[in-house]
Amino acid sequence: MTTTTITAGDGGSFSAYVAMPTRLTAPAVVVIQEIFGVNQVMRDLTDAYARAGHIAICPDIFWRIEPGIDITDKTEAEWQKAFELFGKFDVDAGIEDLKATLAHARGISGCTGKAGSVGYCLGGKLAYLMATRSDSDANVSFYGVGLDELLDEAANITKPYLSHIAAKDGFVPPEAQAKILPVFEGHDRITPYVYAGQDHAFAREGGEHYDAAAADLANRRTQAFFTEHLG
Predict the structure, then answer these.
(1) pLDDT value, residue 130
(2) Pick from 13, 79, 104, 130: CA 20 to 30 A from residue 98's CA?
(3) What are 191-200's pLDDT values in tens digits?
(4) Predicted local distance difference test score (pLDDT) of residue 101
(5) CA atoms within 13 A on the CB side of 106
(6) pLDDT tens-digit readout, 142-201
């Protein structure tokens, strides 16, 4: 586990946490953060993807606002900070930074050249946009937010995309899901899974809505998906 520096396409640079698998060669996975920065939760997830056999890299996508954000979901002040960052975040610039991260990951010694993305919350939204706007080989969203406003981009998806949807997601209400699901279910490159009774961030270990059984199922489905499409 280490950090690396990635050069942005429009100048500047940002850091990323990197975890390597025990065996190379291996495909790469870009792990896209929640609204709390590259914190311990994201580092642990990145380590887990490396243990599963991937070169895993988690970039600091808030670097244009405030580099090095590392907060938790445990206090009201941290939640306020997280939502402030979310409000300031430039999605389009963020996607360009993730494309740069994807290219960087493919260039890491020992990478097969195959690379995908997986994101959580805000990162889930960005993983969807990586499916619509990048050449990423496979992409996974955990409870992505705001997807109902981006459905016109679904037609651009040509590589496999997997979406984990929490049925009781407080940030993705039923009316949003009613728009999302028909589009996803009607697309031959998209696989949606709905988790009955689950709320937002059900896979965030230690979080208020963490559900071990649902998280385990979503994680196993994700690993099988990456094994199939990344090798």
Answers:
(1) 99
(2) 79
(3) 999 999 999 9
(4) 98
(5) 15
(6) 999 999 999 999 999 999 999 999 999 999 999 999 999 999 999 999 999 999 999 999
- Picking from 97, 207, 70, the residue whose alpha carbon sits closest to that of residue 142 is 207
What span, in angstroms and rounded, lies between the C-alpha atoms of 89 and 83? Answer: 10
Active-site positions?
169, 200
Instruction: Tell me how far apart the alpha carbons of residues 173 and 103 are, in angstroms, rounded to a whole number.
Output: 35
25: preceding bond cis by omega (within 30 degrees): yes
CATH of domain 2-230: 3.40.50.1820
As given in the structure block, the two tokens for residue 118 are 């997986």
| Token digits of residue 222 | 């994700």
The pTM of this model reads 0.98
**Which long-range CB contacts under 8 A does 147-151 form with residues at least 24 apart?**
147/172, 147/176, 147/180, 148/172, 148/175, 148/176, 148/177, 148/179, 148/180, 150/125, 151/179, 151/180, 151/183
pLDDT of 1 > 80? The answer is: no
